[in-house]
Design a protein that fits this description.
The complex is a heterodimer of chains A (115) and B (112).
Chain A (H helix, E strand, L loop, with lengths): L3 E4 L2 E4 L5 E7 L5 E8 L3 E10 L2 E4 L6 E3 L9 E3 L8 E8 L10 E2 L3 E5 L1
Parallel strand pairs in A: 2-11
Antiparallel strand pairs in A: 1-3, 3-8, 4-5, 4-9, 5-6, 7-8, 9-10, 9-11
Chain B lengths: L2 E3 L3 E5 L4 E8 L3 E9 L6 E6 L3 E5 L2 E6 L4 E6 L8 E9 L7 E3 L3 E6 L1
Parallel strand pairs in B: 2-11
Antiparallel strand pairs in B: 1-3, 3-8, 4-5, 4-9, 6-7, 7-8, 9-10, 9-11
Classes of the chains: A mainly beta (115), B mainly beta (112).
Chain lengths: 115, 112
């Protein structure tokens, strides 16, 4: 059963701690993405990767870091430098990137709360 | 950059038809996507338009006018389960990244 998984669904951390959000896909997709969703803000792009061992900053990359060592995995680290880390984080993948349809498939999301 | 505008909230009656509009300004337009997102869940893909005209898929249709920077999602025979947020996303080839930018979404409330 192919899909994209994120864990955990809910995550609680103290201010000042780094935290890593997991994202795994078995769809054999080349491209992967991380978005942040806040109420009334829509989805904002944090980082994306179009190929293994390469990734690019999105619109709001400050305070976040990623790695893409394997095609199926794209973990996101929320560092203590991120000013407002409490949010709903969505990981997505797409078969490729470019002119074709290449719709995105989203994971179930991780709701991070930092106090 | 890109500017995408959708109404924040709409309400409609079960069994009716509703049209959700999306206007955008972008350079290098390369396609427009519609996604559905139920509260607390992942967005799911509904439709894709890259050429002008109407794409029909069951109860859902999506229309695009590139010259007007305008799209709409049409939902027919509304059901209670259609209560969700509908996200418009515009892809641009500018810069070579082909990454979609999402609007803020339209929250649709369907009542009996």
């Amino acid at each position: 059963d192919g899909g994209i998984t994120q864990s955990p669904k809910y995550l609680f951390r103290k201010e000042g701690q780094n935290v890593t959000l997991s994202c795994e896909q078995n769809l054999n997709h080349d491209a992967m993405y991380w978005y942040r969703q806040d109420p009334g803000q829509g989805l904002r792009l944090i980082y994306y990767s179009q190929i293994v061992n390469d990734f690019q900053k999105g619109d709001i990359a400050e305070g976040y870091s990623v790695s893409r060592e394997k095609k199926e995995s794209f973990p996101l680290t929320v560092t203590s430098a991120q000013k407002n880390p409490t949010a709903f984080y969505l990981c997505a993948s797409s078969p490729g990137w470019g002119d074709a349809t290449y719709e995105q498939y989203f994971g179930p999301g991780t709701r991070l709360t930092v106090t | 950059g890109q500017n995408i505008d959708q109404p924040t909230e709409m309400t409609a009656t079960e069994g009716a038809i509703v049209q959700i509009n999306c206007t955008y300004q972008t350079s290098g337009f390369n396609g427009l996507f519609w996604y559905q997102q139920h509260a607390g869940e992942a967005p799911t893909f509904l439709s894709y338009n890259v050429l002008d005209g109407l794409e029909e898929k069951g109860r859902f249709s999506s229309f695009l006018s590139r010259s007007k920077g305008y799209s709409y999602l049409l939902l027919k025979e509304l059901q209670m389960k259609d209560s969700a947020s509908y996200l418009c996303a515009v892809r641009s080839s500018s810069g070579g990244s082909y990454i979609p930018t999402f609007g803020r979404g339209t929250s649709l409330i369907v009542h009996p």
